[in-house]
Every structure is written in structure tokens, then in C-alpha cells.
Amino acid sequence: MLLTTARLTMAPLSEHDVDAFTEYRQDPDVARYQSWGTDYSRADAERLVDDQRDGQVPSPGNWLQLAVRETSSGRLLGDLALHRLDDQPDTFEVGVTLARSSQGRGIASEALSALLCFLFDHEHAHRVVAFCDSRNTPVARLLASAGFRQESRQVDADWSKGEWTTLDGHALLASERDPARR
Predict the structure, then answer these.
(1) What number is the average pLDDT over the span 61-87?
(2) Whose CA is closest to 50, among 74, 18, 81, 11?
(3) Helix (H, G, I), strand (E, B) or coil at 32
(4) Predicted pLDDT of residue 23
């Protein structure tokens, strides 16, 4: 699977990404609202890369992490998470994580937009969902700007990193897509 934009190339993570991937996953600011902690290890990253060697759109119930690279330099900027839900047809979950040095430059928006176009136009997605900690306002803004609507709030529903957290659910249907975004 390969996606490209004017500035970015998105493809499955490879062995060459392990060190940079591990480094930004260990950053406390990046890990703050994520499911992993700052103890994310190189071995964790190697297992993740090894588990998705085929690099194809995931089968139902599985995940794929796509490296988000700067096309001109090949530098790893972050990653996109792609999950095909196993209990609903044509339904995907997405996530975005960027290294701190890559944030605030429109990279997440550009990468997410490319992934959404791929899912709706090539995979014929009916629905794409995303979840975030309610305190993660940058991600909530990103999702809103990509056309997602917030459709749920699960108050104190997730025990994460020693505290109860509130999760916001966002969704975008194929029928809700703005034709200008395609």
C-alpha cells in the first residue's frame, strides 16, 4: 500500500523506521494521550513492523501502521493507524501520530486526507471512525477539519495510565464527504 501527496509518502513501516518510530513513541508529549507509554521499546517497534510484513490493507480485525515520510528527504515524520473493523462491513478506524517536530505544519491533515480518499474511493468504505481522549483538542480539531463529526462521548470509560479518561468518538460516512475533498 502506497499513498502520496505533494509533500508526503505513506507506506507500511519498515525496519528502517524502527529507531525513529521508537524515539517519537517514547516522547512524553507524543505518548500522553496514546495507548502506549514512554517505555515503548525498540523490541516493541520491531514486533509491530514484523507483524505487518505484507503491507496490505488489513483484513477484518487487524491493524496496519503506515509510515508518514517527507518525500524529499525520506525522513519519518509520524504514522497513520488503519484498522478494519471485524464486526461491521466496509468500516475502518484510523489514527494519526506525529513526532513532535512534525506537528503544527499541516502534515497530519495532509496524511489523513490522503488516507480517507484511499479508503472511500478505493476500498469503498461506508464509514470511517476515530477515537481520542477528550483532552486531546488538536486531534479533535484535526478530525473536524477532515469532515468527521463527534458522535459520542464516553465519560470516564477508559482506564489509562493510572486514571479514568473520557473518550470521544468521531465518524465520517461516505455519504457525508465533501466532494471538494475528493
Answers:
(1) 96
(2) 18
(3) coil
(4) 97
